[in-house]
Amino acid sequence: MENTQSETNSLQMRYTGVGVSPGRVIAPLIPMAPPVEAPPEGDPLVEDAEAAVERLNQAAKAVKAELKERAERARSEAAAEVLKATSLMAGDKALIKNAAKLVRNQSVSPERALWDAATGYADQMRAMGGYMAERAADIEDVRARIVAELRGMPAPGVPQRTEPFVLAAEDLAPADTAVLDPEAVVALVTSSGGPQSHTAILARNLGLPAVVAATGVTDVESGTRVFVDGSAGSIVTYPGEEQELAVTAWHKASEQLATFNGHGALADGTEVALLANVGTADDAQAAAAAGAQGVGLLRTEFCFLGRDTEPTVEEQTEAYVEIFKAFGSAKIVVRTLDAGADKPLPFLTDTTEPNPALGVRGYRTDWTTPGVLERQLQAIAAAADQTEANVWVMAPMISTAGEAGHFAGLVHAAGLEVSGVMVETPAAAITAEQILDRVDFVSLGTNDLTQYTMAADRMLGSLAELNSPWQPAVLRMIERTAAGAQAASSASGEHKNVGVCGEAAADPALAVVLVGLGVDTLSMSPRSLAAVAAVLSRTDPGQARTVAQTALHATGAQEARESVRAQLPVLEQLGL
């Protein structure tokens, strides 16, 4: 036995990345299939030009339809939103028109024409930087799918296997991640991507262990057994007894985290409401079934994505009513439309902006296209009137107290009582007291707050360390927001609630830090509720404040995380 174990250890290779979704598994690693190869340069046209253009049109329509169908089968609203947006790319009239011109004018095959036209679009997006650069990968995914359709080949995607396996890739396209079967794919590992990439977000929604930015992992031979630790961010080949025991410990600990009793609180009984992030009626029903105490973030983009025109007030009202009903009289925090950046809409946003992440997005779209926000507020108010829900409404991408005051005026004019804003910019964090003089609550969007504070594109794997909510600078922004809320509460005599609805709230260790910094409520994926509740229930307020100070005084994200975890033995006890 000792010799066997020694031989195993000598064969082991360890790859380290960023753990983005907890869990420990052992299974064969299977890489994604090779990408679709580019057609040869100048690949000549061998058929009638108009017949080739018609084939091109039909292929694009087929890919668009397939992506839409995948959106309907997607296991999460986040996946559905991404797939709907990607399907629009497949049916983009300008893309197909440019490809058709190349067929007619340069007598190249439709495959080569489409490839060149899409590559041109992708290059333009990369030149823009930020969110648009991230969308370039989606254009290239659409490019590959249309070329595969033209060739009569299967679309690129996840390997089809009956046995459980770990899926490895450089990064995963939305169409790949959206319809993963968790019964077959038991973990995700990528060599690039960041903590807020599509892979990371969808892995958390699916409850799959995942590690991103693990350089070299795609070089592992297909079929090699690997150990994946989604908390530690590590992958080990040829796992031995140590790794087997770690998986066993994880399964035992998971049994303690099977359910959430619907009451978030610290060890002394101090309440910390645990809410859910949702985007559709199905999401809301699943969150309610999981015990969520309400909704801390209702993403309303699902009403708008995949459309060429604005949905009517009546259409929006009907959609909101179905979600509100799932929670009876519980609190529902509705975020108004967060269009722009990575969620462009043809009737609302300008896709030619040089830096969309810093452009007209969220609340700012009301400056350039007034009326859309007011009609959305009318729909939210109408849905609130038809249900018992306790509806709060907040605007994304607020930077000044003046903007907060204007939004509060729109909310009250629509007949809604509780107004708030997202704190996603350093400007909003450091002026929280002034903002909360004008609105009733704030909710921290830690994904954007991190990238704006650290000046680091949240999609880039090379900036994963900077782009972590554990960064002390980000935690100080959160501390400043909570202090501003306390001051505003004292001045007004009314409690000004501070919530977190970004991905940070789903990390049990970071949840303790957030509460220690003065955060009142946490909102997350329903799958994270039980783990966060279990850790909070074993932590007293003094301990939370102590670990929060530890994190604030760390020199970086890794030190902050490691030092906090060292002070919370409950995490190891629960396998977290």
From TrEMBL:
EC number: 2.7.3.9
Key word Transport present: yes
InterPro entries membership: PEP-util_enz_mobile_dom, PEP-utilizing_PTS_enzyme, PEP_util_C, PEP_util_CS, Phosphohistidine_dom_sf, PTS_EI, PTS_EI-like, PTS_EIN
Catalytic activity: L-histidyl-[protein] + phosphoenolpyruvate = N(pros)-phospho-L-histidyl-[protein] + pyruvate
Domain PEP-utilising enzyme mobile, first and last residues per copy: 163-233
Location of the Phosphotransferase system enzyme I N-terminal domain: 16-135
Stretches assigned to the PEP-utilising enzyme C-terminal domain: 265-538
Subcellular localization, as worded in the UniProt entry: Cytoplasm
Root EC class: transferase
Family in the record: Belongs to the PEP-utilizing enzyme family.
Protein name per Swiss-Prot or TrEMBL: Phosphoenolpyruvate-protein phosphotransferase
Protein species of origin: Kocuria atrinae
